[in-house]
Design goal:
The complex is a heterodimer of chains A (754) and B (163). Chain A is an alpha+beta fold and 754 residues long. Chain A is 28% helix and 26% strand. Chain A has three domains: 12-124 and 189-264, Aldehyde Oxidoreductase, domain 3 (Alpha-Beta Complex); 276-388 and 400-443 and 594-744, 2-Layer Sandwich (Aldehyde Oxidoreductase, domain 4); 449-587, Aldehyde Oxidoreductase, domain 4. Chain A has a seven-stranded mixed β-sheet, sandwiched between helices. In chain A, α6 (209-220) crosses α7 (247-257). Chain B is built from five helices and five strands, in the order ββαβββαααα. Chain B has 163 residues and is an alpha+beta fold. Helices cover 31% and strands 14% of the residues of chain B. Chain B is globular and about 55 Å long. Chain B has helices at 23-30, 86-93, 103-116, 122-128, 140-153; strands spanning 2-7, 10-15, 49-52, 55-58, 71-73. The chains are: A alpha+beta (754), B alpha+beta (163). Chains A and B meet through α1 and α16 of A and α2, α3, α4 and α5 of B. The complex binds FE2/S2 (inorganic) cluster (2 copies).
């Protein structure tokens, strides 16, 4: 049994020994060091860049500007919205954008050189508020852009919301906001570039080596075969390592200078220059009948993409698709807009807009329950999507719908806490619920993965995959799938991962897609390898009409225990004929693009479901929220490696706790962990992770994903719990000391116009 | 100035270490010991934790000269003769390693705690490790690992029910 067990994760022994070389640990003697010249005030026009003072310093080798970029200086992870100049050409669009790159013999010389470069700038009018950015006459972040500062507008429409509101027993209306969040992966971005065999090589921490390769090839104007990207061991990502960071700088300098280069961001540079989670402003109107059944949802969403698009299009659309939550809603009208501003850019972060809308759809459910005098858990159960029902995009769910089971799992815990929650003059306790669903993979577009498996003549199986393991455990899970499907021991599976010269594209480690999509690609490769081996064995055995099976490294003939062949023998036979025992496989989930005018379609092939509840204590004197316990039930289809699933759930819950209670990135102000607090062990509540396995028919052995779902219901559950403790709904995150004190003082957080 | 100290049980003697150099830079860059990590450089994350005479310090904030005449232990010095330290074992078995970037600092911090308090409660573990940030695990399995490692260091059998 390999599936459903938790073998030691690949690479963890090296990690406890301190032997693992992350992106930040790359480098050899003789490397050149790089430093970026970054501008802190934006927008600003570049009047001139004078590298001479830097070049006069000892050790400085060269200063690059945009003019030195041989290819296309427009990067960004979505092909249709590449708009980020890695060295600004004429206009610096947000604080932190780089305008020049210094290469030097030592890190000190590189830094000194970066300080010495003289950049002449003229300030230009900017816009820093997402609503103001869309107003008439707002300064344009990308002058000349046809849609102005509107990056994207997405709608989901079905039925008639206004008529439904009129016929509803109750209608609730409220505003919600979430803050800008920094991923804060513990490893900052880092890597190295060098020449080898006439090819430029780049290794760096990343969530998507093949995308990096394609962007670098465009950036340098090379052919794909001239550049190799190798994923370095990656110290967390959470979406922050999807867009390229250090890679273009490493590649540019190494390409020009024909010498190895190295660059690691300080935490300050990482905070300053990499993408963040989109802050959202949301206005919701939700109706229900007397039994609490949802009649209609009207949602207006607005998000800030900052100066660049990055994953904005995907976040805008995914937020819209998930805006009504995991409920059956007959009438919907969702408008999702995303605005450019001169703030630091925002991009993908664990959940892609769904953690933000979850705050709102869950707040609305509580408001409806309270208005109708219904139980907050029951109203969710009544509305929970079930097989046979349609989502708001008109997708009829066939199976793999485990929300009710998740609610069943948390209910006894929720009830116990409710009975326990108490209060006195100073401390008030509260309990809250949050539920969610999450579409696995990219929204309504093709997002394939590929993999290869090769049986070697010494009895091992090599799995070739482009999947970036960034700590979530895909290296182990994919090996478990391959071993199970081929009937070999896990220890027999070797891994070649994330090297663009040896593996093919698996797509990004994002959208909780790798277990489901790349897992399926590995299964397909195993199937093809099995067919190849059995076909060859059939020839060798002359067993033309009998059924052959592959088990325990042997090919056996059904009903004839005497005839059997070792797989290694078959593999040798194949290789003697000059053929590798290699199977290739791919998988692309079946989706239907959403119609632009109604948002109807089939955005995802599979959905994950979850319910969490939180038990908090609020100190009325200090405004301090202490989270006592969180229970989190997640339908993952099938837990291939239960320990990794539980680890994802606990880690997600803590990141959700950060989003809910403390994290708030202020562009232009926040600089390091000193002024950006993420949860520490002292903040950690007791977490009870619970696995629900409602098999997904299209998943590998029924599995889907859990990475992002783990975080999504936490902040809504915390907001509800704090709201219950304080006796008033909490709709604006984070629930910091100040916000709680304001609420207690009766001021309340001001609703912001959408 | 000559800087003499003991590193993972071995004497080290270095010439020309600038007064301002941090112990972190000395370990990572001068001695190429990359097991000690830098997560913030300002004493807020604990990724750079090492032991100085058995007590945990943030090596990013510790000037290298402070090591003079003392014993420095990094993650590379914990395992002896290929034998993992009990905390290294327990971090593995508890699944407390995800991306693993916090792991070296976390293990050394835990070792420092256990040398003061061999039988800490979960709350004591959480307080003691509060200077070591982990963005991946939610600390659940780290606390479990420390509890397990503590038992092993005390020479006791593993708990029957661990969660
Ligand atoms: S690197 Fe020293 S505490 Fe963060
Ligand atoms: S395991 Fe990634 S930071 Fe702790």
């Amino acid at each position: 049994m390999i599936l459903g067990t938790s073998p030691l994760r690949s690479g963890s022994r090296e990690r406890v020994l301190g032997d693992t070389r992350f992106g930040a640990d790359q480098g050899q003697a003789g490397d050149l060091y790089l430093a970026c010249v970054r501008i802190h005030k934006a927008p600003a026009r570049i009047d001139g860049i004078d590298p001479a003072p830097a070049l006069a310093l000892p050790g400085v080798v060269r200063v690059f500007t945009a003019a030195d970029i041989p290819g296309v200086n427009r990067l960004g992870i979505i092909p249709v919205s590449k708009d980020q100049e890695f060295l600004a050409e004429e206009l610096v669009r947000c604080p932190g954008q780089a305008v020049a790159l210094v290469a030097a013999e030592t890190p000190e010389a590189a830094r000194a050189g970066a300080r010495a470069v003289v950049v002449k700038l003229t300030g230009a009018p900017g816009v820093y508020d997402m609503a103001e950015a869309l107003a008439e006459g707002a300064p344009l972040v990308h002058p000349g852009r046809e849609q102005g500062n509107l990056l994207d507008l997405r709608v989901i429409k079905n039925g008639d919301v206004e008529a439904a509101f009129k016929a509803s027993a109750v209608v609730v209306e409220a505003d919600y906001t979430t803050s800008m969040i920094e991923h804060s992966a513990l490893e900052t971005e880092g890597g190295r570039a060098w020449w080898e065999d006439g090819k430029l090589h780049v290794t760096a921490c990343t969530q998507n080596p093949h995308y990096d390769r394609d962007d670098l090839v465009r950036f340098l104007g090379l052919k794909p075969e001239d550049l190799v990207v190798i994923q370095a061991e990656t110290g967390g990502g959470f979406g922050g390592k999807l867009d390229v960071s250090v890679q273009p700088y490493l590649a540019l300098a190494a390409w020009h200078l024909k010498r190895p280069t190295r660059l690691v961001y300080t935490r300050e540079e990482s905070f300053l220059s990499t993408g963040k989670r989109h802050p959202f402003r949301m206005h919701y109107v939700t109706g229900a009948d007397e039994q609490g059944r949802l009649t209609a949802v009207k949602a207006e969403l607005l998000a800030d993409t900052g100066a660049f698009a990055s994953y904005g299009l995907a976040v805008c659309m995914r937020a819209a698709v998930h805006a009504a939550g995991p409920y059956y809603v007959p009438n919907v009208d969702v408008t999702s807009r995303m605005a450019y501003t001169n703030n630091v850019w925002t991009g993908a972060m664990r959940g892609f807009g769904v953690p933000q809308v979850a705050l709102a759809h869950e707040g609305q459910m509580d408001a409806l329950a309270d208005a109708l005098g219904l139980d907050r858990l029951e109203i969710r159960r009544v509305n929970a999507l079930r097989p046979g029902q349609a989502t708001i995009t008109g997708q009829v769910l066939k199976g793999g719908v485990g929300l009710t089971q998740c609610l069943d799992k948390v209910e006894p815990i929720y009830r116990t806490w409710q009975a326990k929650a108490k209060g006195d003059d100073r401390f008030a306790e509260g309990v809250g619920l949050g539920v969610m669903y999450y579409g696995i993979g990219n929204t309504g577009v093709s997002n394939p993965s590929t993999a290869q498996l090769e049986w070697t003549t010494d009895g091992r199986v090599v799995l070739f995959t482009g999947v970036a393991d960034i700590g979530q455990g895909s290296d182990t899970v994919l090996r478990q799938l391959a071993a199970t499907r081929l009937g070999v021991r896990l220890e027999q599976i070797d891994l070649v991962r994330g090297d663009t010269s040896r593996t093919t594209n698996a797509g990004a480690t994002s959208a909780s897609r790798q277990t489901y999509i790349s897992g399926n690609a590995v299964m397909a490769a195993a199937e093809n390898l099995e067919a190849l081996v059995l076909g060859e064995a059939r020839k060798m055995l002359g067993a033309r009409h009998q059924e052959l099976v592959l088990e325990d490294g042997m090919v056996r003939v059904k009903g004839d225990p005497e005839s059997a062949l070792g797989v290694t023998e078959v593999v040798r036979h194949l290789t003697q004929r000059g053929q590798a025992a290699r199977g290739e496989g791919g998988f692309d989930p079946h989706t239907v693009p959403l119609k632009p005018d109604t948002g109807q379609g089939k955005p995802y092939a599979a959905y994950a479901w979850a319910a969490q509840c939180a038990f908090v204590e609020v100190d009325r004197d200090s405004g301090m929220v202490r989270v006592k316990e969180i229970a989190a039930a997640h339908d993952v289809g099938r837990a291939i490696h239960p320990k990794a699933v539980l680890g994802q759930i606990c880690g997600g819950v803590m990141m959700g706790l950060g989003l809910g209670l403390m994290e708030e990135f202020h562009p232009g102000k926040t600089s390091n962990f000193e002024d950006y607090h993420i949860p520490t062990s002292a903040d950690a509540p007791r977490i009870t992770p619970l696995i629900v396995e409602e098999p997904e028919a299209t998943g590998p052995y029924g599995a889907k994903g859990v990475g992002e779902p783990a975080l999504i219901p936490t902040a809504p559950a915390l907001a509800a719990a704090v709201g219950q403790a304080l006796g008033q709904p909490m709709r604006h995150l984070p629930l910091s000391l100040e916000r709680v004190m304001e609420t207690l003082a009766g001021a309340g957080a001001k609703d912001q116009p959408c | 100035m000559t800087l003499d100290f003991t590193l993972n049980g071995q004497p080290v003697s270095l010439e020309g270490v600038p007064a301002a150099e941090s112990l972190l830079d000395l370990l990572r860059h001068r001695l190429d010991l990359k097991g000690t990590k830098e997560g913030c450089g300002v004493g807020e994350c604990g990724a750079c934790s090492v032991l100085l005479d058995g007590k945990v310090v943030d090596s990013c904030l510790t000037p290298a000269w402070k090591a003079a005449g003392r014993e420095v232990t990094t993650i590379e010095g914990l395992a002896r003769d290929g034998q993992l330290h009990p905390l290294q074992e327990s971090f593995l078995s508890a699944g407390a390693v995800q991306c693993g970037f916090c792991t070296p600092g976390m293990i050394l911090s835990a070792q420092s705690l256990l040398s003061d308090n061999p039988d800490p409660s979960d709350e004591e573990i959480k307080i003691a490790l509060a200077g070591n940030v982990c963005r991946c695990t939610g600390y659940h399995d780290i606390v479990l690992a420390v509890r397990r490692g503590a038992r092993a260091l005390r020479g006791e059998a593993p708990e029957a029910d661990e969660s």
